Amino acid sequence: MLLTFPFGSYTDLMLPQSKKVSGLNPFLARIASWNCLRLISSEKGISISTHIIEEAANVFEEVIILKDKCVYLKENTVELLDKCRYVSGLEEDVKNAVDGCKIINEEHIGRSYAVTVMQDGDGKIKAVQHVTVQPVSLQNLFIAICGQSNM
Length: 151
Prior knowledge:
34% strand; 4-stranded antiparallel β-sheet
């Protein structure tokens, strides 16, 4: 985990929370982090970066995904997950079901075909027989977004 405390427009203080990354004792790193948090006024922003994505999804209000050095997505966590789905089945059926949706990632798995989609505006998933529609986790959404070179 990495905590970033923006003190000014050009200065960030970063405190690594992972023993693998920092070589710090996790207990001492946690104490240092909380001491820094106490020093920050309520007007300052706190950015927390972690590799434990699902834990973060349950805590944070907003997700910002960076891709190719740019902000790819900035959205409320609950709203984002509500409109994203993992859809699988035979390719023709899946393509009919997600017609009009933004396809984030495609996978061919043997005879099966699966897509991660984002529903917005008129792009809603249609009910098609033999197609499975599942919620997508934030971690799987992140992988779908960042794993594609053409996104």
